[in-house]
Specification:
Layout: E1 6-9, E2 15-19, E3 23-25, H1 31-41, H2 44-52, H3 59-69, E4 77-81, H4 87-92, E5 98-103, E6 113-117, H5 123-133, E7 138-143, H6 153-174, E8 175-186, H7 192-201, E9 202-208, E10 219-227
Parallel strand pairs: 4-5, 4-7, 5-6, 7-8
Antiparallel strand pairs: 1-2, 2-3, 8-10, 9-10
The structure holds S-adenosylmethionine.
S-adenosylmethionine binds at residues 55-56, 58-59, 82-88, 102-105, 119-121, 144-146.
């Protein structure tokens, strides 16, 4: 005899009937949404994030990166790009002195986090960010920004590289000597040209896939520490 179905309520208030084996019955749901929901419901990181009150399971990724690379020091000034719904900012703010977060989407306020809603690729957003920093140099630039993917590897790769190039350009004007970048890239890699430049300008450049990053996801993280560029 199967287990009794139970109700799950999404953050947007929709209720779903969940059967044993994490199958979701709701005829109004598209197949892709049903699969996403089933994956969420059977994911231990989602459950743990909920238990700990984290805004997203992504919080565990930056916690794993922090544990391994110690990128964020006490008193650090941190810029968190692609911050919504706020999992990274939420766990970084208690460590850092200042966190300025940016996202295309709105993000509900978090203690110790200043927020800019905008497209980081737009000049106006970059200018607002510089204005908010008020000339203050940054210790760590985090980017969990992900482009909308289309499934065509070459195009998806170009889209994420576009974001990384913009992150690196921002770092060149704002990062303190000794500073660090943590940025989401897709496996298969960072462009050789950019990687060579990063290796030239940072003491150490690595790629790391946290355990909390889904195996099925092509994402991995570029971690560059010890910026040796000009102040
Ligand atoms: C994977 S989510 C980030 C999750 C977040 N790190 C957390 O812990 O909750 C990626 C975010 O990047 C944002 N994003 C993508 N492209 C962006 C852009 N050009 N400018 C600003 N935000 C962007 C998306 O809106 C999305 O919220």
């Amino acid at each position: 005899m199967g287990a009794t179905p139970w109700k799950f309520e999404s953050s947007s208030g929709h209720q779903f009937l969940v059967e044993s084996g994490m199958q979701v019955r709701n005829r109004k749901l598209k197949e892709s949404s049903r699969k996403w929901l089933e994956r969420q419901l059977s994911d231990p990181f989602v459950a743990e994030a909920k238990r700990l009150g984290y805004r997203s399971r992504a919080a565990f990724k930056i916690l794993e990166i922090q544990e391994k690379f110690r990128v964020i020091r006490k008193d650090a000034v941190v810029v968190d790009l692609g911050a919504a719904p706020g999992g990274w900012s939420q766990v970084v703010a208690p460590i850092a002195r200042r966190v300025v977060a940016v996202d295309l989407l709105d993000m509900s306020p978090l203690p110790g986090v200043e927020f800019i809603r905008g497209d980081f690729l737009e000049q106006s957003c970059a200018e607002l960010l510089e204005q908010m920093l008020g000339g203050q140099k940054v210790d760590v630039v985090l980017s969990d920004m992900a482009p909308n993917t289309c499934g065509i590897h070459r195009i998806d790769h170009l889209r994420i590289m576009n974001l990384i190039e913009a992150v690196y350009a921002f770092c060149q004007t704002t990062l303190k000597p000794g500073g660090a970048i943590v940025a989401k890239v897709f496996q298969g890699g960072t462009e050789v040209g950019l990687l060579t430049e990063l290796k030239h300008n940072f003491a150490k450049v690595s790629h790391f896939k946290p355990n909390s990053s889904r195996k099925s996801s092509p994402e991995t993280y570029l971690i560059a520490t010890g910026y040796v560029g000009k102040e």
